[in-house]
Design goal:
Layout lengths: L4 E6 L5 E6 L5 H13 L28
Antiparallel strand pairs: 1-2
Length: 67
């Protein structure tokens, strides 16, 4: 599982800026939803390029041979 990082900047006027790194697609919103509810109303939300990426599933098919 890739590392995901949440960074918060608390401004002098009390506003909080949140930045998420390493979250792909909708996982960013899922990761921060409860934190944003606890902090209060979200004034602005901007998606980064990572929000438009798709997760990549790694799988391998190994043919079974029975003799």
């Amino acid at each position: 599982m890739p590392q995901r990082t949440l960074r918060f900047k608390i401004r002098q006027d009390g506003r909080v800026e949140e930045c998420v790194e390493g979250a792909v697609g909708a996982s960013c919103h899922q990761l921060t939803e409860s934190i944003e509810k606890a902090l209060g109303a979200v004034e602005v939300s901007k998606q980064t390029a990572d929000a438009y990426l798709r997760t990549q599933d790694q799988s391998q098919v190994i043919p079974a041979q029975i003799h």
